[in-house]
Amino acid sequence: MIDQYINQLEKVFEQHANQKIAQGQAAYMQYQFDFFGIQAPDRQTLQKPFLIKKYLPAKEDAFKIAGILWQKPQREFQYFAMTLVEKYKNQYSIDDIAFFEELITRKSWWDTVDFLSQKIIGHYFKIYPNKIQESIESWINSKNIWLQRTAILFQLKYKDQTDTHLLSHIIDQLKDTNTFFINKAIGWSLREYGKTNPAWTSDFVAQTKLHPLSRREAMRLINKNL
Fold this sequence. Notes:
Layout: H1 2-15, H2 19-28, H3 40-47, H4 59-71, H5 75-86, H6 97-105, H7 110-127, H8 132-140, H9 145-153, H10 164-174, H11 180-194, H12 198-207, H13 212-224
Helix pairs in contact: 1-4, 4-5, 5-7, 6-7, 7-9, 8-9, 9-11, 11-12, 11-13, 12-13
């Protein structure tokens, strides 16, 4: 079942490969990954039959499939794997956090980490809020920028459910860095929450010594609306 599922997916992707587009995609990702050259709307159409609910494999098999796809060189496989894992969001078990961490820390770049942070980790922590403190503290102290970025971004779509005390703590722990992906994420998280609570965001930015990139990103929409 697992091998057949993967082989069929691989065949579909190979049939729709476009070398010219693949070269552009690889360049955009700084030549870190290979691509089939399938643009996102086309890929989403091609993978739909593999994601029909009644044809989905059991969760255990699906997570094995995702793990195997994560090893493959073409980036489209990782994009599909994330989408597949998200399909089981109502079946996540408390121990799945270990698998999710593997996905975050392997073949890491903003495109996968941002999806995993918002769509998968964000949902997981809503189911298992008792895992937040342990995981977040571990990620902050991990020195892995992708786990740290996940800690910053997992609440991105929480809106009025955002734990501002936690967000403040995470930012305070990570703000003293020149790492682009951390400073950008800090600004992004604040800008997004600023849509819900601009007063809190403005006060936090005014009272916190942030990297100029974080400050600029955080206040971009608020300043625009002044």
